[in-house]
Structure formats: structure tokens, C-alpha cells
Amino acid sequence: MFEALKSSPRFRVQSPFLQSLRSRFGKVGLRLLLVLVPLFFLRACVLTYVPPDKIGVRQVSYGSGKGLQKEPVLPGWRRELSSYERIYTFPRDIQAVEFTNNSAETGAGHLQRPAVKVPTVDGYPVDVDVTVLYRIKDPYLLASKFGLSKAYEEAVVVRFTDPTVKQYLGELLAEEFYHPKRLAQVAALKDALAKRFTPNGLELKDILIRQYDYPDTFQALTEQKKIQDQSVLTNQALAKQAEVQTRLNRVIAEGQNLVNVSTAEFNAQITEINAQKDLYQRQKKAEADLLVKTAQASGTELVNRALEGAGSAKLLRLRRGLALLEGIKGPIYISEDPTDLGKLGSPK
């Protein structure tokens, strides 16, 4: 039974429309192949594509224009006749070369070289991590000098960067790598390196000084030097403090002396004023005493003159009587007229 099934013909749809459609598609496909295959072949032999991040240089194999062509090949579809010429491409974006001893600090695809060992003025070698950023400016000049490979990285970037960094940063002291003077040296380094890159078809974009590694002995010497510097600064501060204290003491002494002089002057003025006051008082008192004594002398003179005149005998008898009365002790009995001066003055 199975053999009968195997020998029986398979089921097929018999349709004139489908057969006509299949025939038309077959003819169209054949025509497309006849057109596209030569186009693909022609493209492979005549055209090539330069990516946007590349720049090319054309090399002609034979003929009057044989060799590298000076005009750069820009990105896009460009002519490339097979076996007659060829386009070689170089990176158009910014490239980098790393000088570092730490492999973790370099990027993928970048050329890495050891850190630049800079001999400083004071004799301490400093390992400097440097990143050089550049781009290809003239692919013809680059290819004519260093070929169509990346040999220019060693021949230009590494060759010029290492001695130039040593030349300019080597003029610094080890501790001046963290000083503003380093910025001036890096700017001069960048200008010098750019002038060396340009004749070789490269354009320097920037050079980054990223890290400094000092020898172990430098840290110990630096700490000792810093302690000495701090001691010097401390002594200078103490000397300035003593100088200020001396000036302060001198000012205080001058002020006290000025106070004493002013006090003495004031006391002298007060003494002079008191002396003038006493002199004035004595003068006025002497004048008053003189006036009193003069008045008394005048009164005495007047009294004497009065005694010399009329009635002076009676006045004398009266005074004598008063003196007698004052000399009597005990009770006094008056039997006569006390006003009778004649009796008082006459002897018994």
C-alpha cells in the first residue's frame, strides 16, 4: 500500500494565471540580476566609501601622476579605480597618546608609554603622567614621511613629547610642580610641541599634565624642610612679637613719661598759682595792717593833740580816777558826786 502511495503523483494546482505570474517574476528577477551584478562589480572596482571619522590620501600606482596625491580625500563616496589607485584612510577625530605607569589610567586603543621621568633642578626625578591630544591635519605630509601605518605615533608624538616635557618641566624645582610657575612652563611646552608637530602633518590640540610621582626620599626631605621652614617662620614670628612688645613698652614708657612731665608741669603751675595767691594775700594783709596802723597812729596823734589842748587836765584826772576805781577791791561807797572832777583831782 505504501509503495502505491509513493508512486502516485503529488498534488499540484494547475492554474494558467499562476503560471503566467511565476514566469513574469522569473524574468524580472533575471533582469534585476543582470543590472545589479554589474553595478555591484562596478562599485567594487570604481567607488569606495570613506567614513565620517576618517580622512584619506590617494595613491596612484602608475601613469604620469604616480604616487601619493596632495589633495586629501574627504568622507563620502569617492572614486577608487581598482589596480590603478587606492585610498588609504587615517583617523580624523582627536587621537591620544598616554605617558603613564598605571595601565588603568589609559583608554582603549590609545598608545601607552611609560611616564616621563623629569630631572628637576634640585636633582629629584619626578615621574609625570602626560596625555597628548592631537589630530591629523595633513594626511599627504604624514604618509609621505612616515608611511601609511601608525608609525607617526612613535616617530612624532613619542619622539618629541618626551624630551620637550623634560626640557621645560626640568626647569622647575620638585616642589614647584604645585606652584603657579608650572602653568607658565606648561604653556611654553605646549607652544614648542605644537611647532614640532606642524611640519609633520599633525596638529596639537592639548597636552595634559595629570599626575606627579615623587621619589620616596623626597617626601622625607620635604617633611624635614617644611619643619625647618616652620621653625624659621616661628622664630621670625617670635622676633616680630618681641619687636612689637619692645615698641609697645617704649610707647608705654613714653606715655608714662609724658604723663609725669605733664603732671609736674601742672603741679608747678598749681604751686605758682598758690604762691601768687599767698603773695597776694600777704600783700593785701600788709596793706590792710598798714592802713590800720596808719589809722591807729593818726588816732593816737589826734588823741595826743587833743590831750595837749584845752580840757586835757580834766581828761587826765578822769583817767586817773578810772584807774583808781579799777584798782579798788571790795564794795565801793560813794558819798560824793563822782562827776565832781575838782574834788577827785585835788589832794587831801
Describe the structure.
With 348 residues, the chain is α+β, with helices and mostly antiparallel strands. Among the domains are: 90 residues, no CATH class; 120 residues, Band 7 domain (Tetrahydropterin Synthase, Chain A, 2-Layer Sandwich). Helices cover 56% and strands 17% of the residues. The strands form three sheets. Strands 6, 7, 8, 9 and 10 form a five-stranded mixed β-sheet that branches. Strand 8 and strand 9 form a beta hairpin. Helix 4 packs antiparallel against helix 5.
Mean pLDDT score:
79
> How does the overall form come out from the CA principal axes?
rod-shaped
**What would CATH call the class of one domain?**
Alpha Beta
Specify Rg, calculated over alpha carbons: 68 Å
Beta-strand content bin: 15-25%
Number of helices: 8
pLDDT < 50 stretches: 1-6
H/E series, N to C? HHEEEEEEEEEHHHEHHH
Q: Quick one: biggest sheet?
A: 5 strands, mixed
Helix content: 55-70%
CATH-defined topology of one domain:
Tetrahydropterin Synthase, Chain A
Secondary structure tally: strands: 10
- Counting helices, strands and paired strands, the structural category is alpha+beta
Distance between the termini: 228 Å
Named CATH architecture of one domain? 2-Layer Sandwich
Short description:
The protein contains eight helices and ten strands.
What key attributes describe this structure?
348 residues; alpha+beta; Tetrahydropterin Synthase, Chain A; five-stranded mixed sheet; 56% helix
Provide the fold topology.
Elements: H1 2-7, H2 16-46, E1 47-50, E2 54-60, E3 67-68, E4 76-79, E5 85-91, E6 95-99, E7 111-113, E8 116-119, E9 125-136, H3 139-146, H4 151-169, H5 181-197, E10 202-213, H6 216-308, H7 312-327, H8 341-345
